[in-house]
Amino acid sequence: MLGFVLAGLAWRLFLMGRYAGWEESDYGNLAMVRGVLDGGFRHYDMNHMPGYYALAAAALAVVGDAVVAARAVSLAGGLAALGLAVALADRVFGRSAALLAGLLLVFQPEFALYAASSLREPVYAAFVVGALAAALTDRALLAGALAGAAFLVRFDAALALAPLALVQAMPGGRPSPRRLLAFLAPLALAIAGWAAYTWWDHGTARFWSHSVQVNLETGLGAEASTPAGWVRDGLGVAAALAGPVLGRHLGWPAWAGAWLGLGLAALGAWGAAGRRFAALAGGLLGVWLGMGFVAQHEPGHNLYWKWLCPVVPALVPLAAAGLLAAAGALARRLPGARGRRAAAALVVVAAAGTLAGQLAETRRQVARSDAWYRPQLELARWIEDRVPEDVPLLVDNIPACWIDRRPHERAMTSWFDVPVPPGDADAFADWLDRARIGWVLWFREDWTQAPKVAPFLAGGGTWTHGRVRLVEVAREDGYGWILYRVDGPAWEGRTRAPPPRIGRGADP
Q1: What is the 3-state secondary structure of 193-208?
Q2: CB burial readout 11-40, b (16+ within 10 A) else e
């Protein structure tokens, strides 16, 4: 186990220097971690739960750097999940399965990349695998406490861990209310405590409402014309996730092994321990597919990659066990040494094919982050280095979150907070002048509100309205953003920073 943890550490540290993040959340988490510490651990965002942010804020209080703190907590969670998963595979499925599972877990794309960033999913994975470890040793109360901790990182843990709670409450095939209560009581306490907090701090006990609503409104299901069409579309998304999406991200040989291992474990091939493993993996996988069915984002959406991360350490050991079971069946069908050689070849080819697929997907995600998110990070660093702190900015997403990772005196306005009617060019230009905005970062994506507030900036170049002129100085067309310098009476005679050398822009 230790060898795989060390290999996982080395690979994740290697990725950390090359991966620019999954999306805005990596950088938004830095700002939220700083906010939790600055708020004395009393205020948490309702949509993101408190667990990861409290741990990272405690680390920030020690190390003084939000990037180091957030990444260290994600890394620790990912390595804990990896080590526990390999140890449990050894306990339940045997040493060969543990060795194969460890190899695949070191390099699985989401499991590795997100532990090399500042996302909360690796910490969630550590808690859910920890709950399984406690359940396998019949410590129901500890399993429930770890389930409660998992809930405080991601609220879908309440659904994902329900099958494990039920299976561990039937040790001999007969239900034990005492064991079920021991598991559910700490989880219920965590749910009730968080609901009470959100009622006190956010005015509602329905802590799930906004997050669910946003995913429903932004998914393809919002376009369905009939209930039957909505169900059909949801089944289509779930089927795509269970098939090509899971196959590409897990590796096709491991994908086949996972479904085989899940089925064999549920049928009792590895006894009560195997059923508990299957209960956790099935619950996590079911919630992942259920989110696809309900939210109905396009199957290639990267939200599904992030949601897949905690499924991996529960599913990959089953994949390893399934592949070895298939190899064993092949060995039994062929005589003597021929069968053993065929079985070994099957395992080697499956492992090599899985690793090749995993590394290809890792390269794809690293290249995507480098093209879409690193330019925004470079822009944020340019703002910190070259734009005076007394220059107000209309800036959002990664640049704003990166700047907010530490205390500063900058005045930054989000597109969500621009106090003008959507599409009103006169009001927008007047506000820029009154607020003395020096730089405007416009985004193409509708959810940023920039296209709604200022659709007239979509073309880039120079935009003049009244006394204000906006000049494009940098842009990146993959993700879709344009940086404008604001010229107008409010800025006459002031020293202006030269434009950044990022993307394609007009001459200053």
Answers
A1: HHHHHHHHHHCCCCCC
A2: bbeebeeebbbbbbbbbbbbbbbbbbbeee
Q: Across-strand partners of 476?
A: 481
CB 22 within 8 A of CB 305: yes
What is the C-alpha separation between 252 and 428, in angstroms, rounded? Answer: 52
- Cα 496 from Cα 498, distance rounded (Å): 6
- The CA distance from 410 to 191, in Å, is 38
Question: Would you give the distance in Å from CA 367 to the centre of its chain?
Answer: 17
CB atoms within 10 A of CB 362: 21
CA 130 to centroid of chain Cα atoms: 19
Place of tokens 């491991």: 254
Order the strands of the 393-394 sheet from edge to edge: 412-413, 393-394, 439-443, 481-487, 468-476, 462-465
The residues with which 413 forms a beta bridge, in sequence order, are: 394
Instruction: State the Cα–Cα distance between residues 503 and 482, nearest whole angstrom.
Output: 9
Token pair listed for 170: 């039937």
Name the 3-class secondary structure at 465. strand
Tens of pLDDT, residue by residue, the chain (508 residues)? 789 999 999 999 999 999 999 998 999 999 999 999 999 999 999 989 999 999 999 999 999 999 999 999 999 999 999 999 999 999 999 999 999 999 999 999 999 999 999 999 999 999 999 999 999 999 999 999 999 999 999 999 999 999 999 999 987 767 788 999 999 999 999 999 999 999 999 999 898 888 888 777 766 666 666 888 889 999 999 999 999 999 999 999 999 999 999 999 999 999 999 999 999 999 999 999 999 999 889 999 999 999 999 999 999 999 999 999 999 999 898 888 888 999 999 999 999 999 999 999 999 999 999 999 999 999 999 999 999 999 999 999 999 999 999 999 999 999 999 999 999 999 999 999 999 999 999 999 999 999 999 999 999 999 999 889 999 999 999 999 999 999 976 565 555 666 676 654 433 3
Angle at alpha carbon of residue 61, lines to 59 and 67, rounded to 5°: 55
Place of tokens 């089927």: 239
CA dist list (Å): 262 to 95, 98, 201, 315: 18, 16, 42, 8
Tokens found for residue 31 = 């700002």
C-alpha 444/C-alpha 450 separation (Å) is 7
pTM of the model: 0.93
Q: At what angle do helices 252-266 and 336-372 cross, to 10 degrees?
A: 120
Q: At what angle do helices 24-38 and 66-93 cross, to 10 degrees?
A: 110
Rg of the chain (C-alpha set): 25
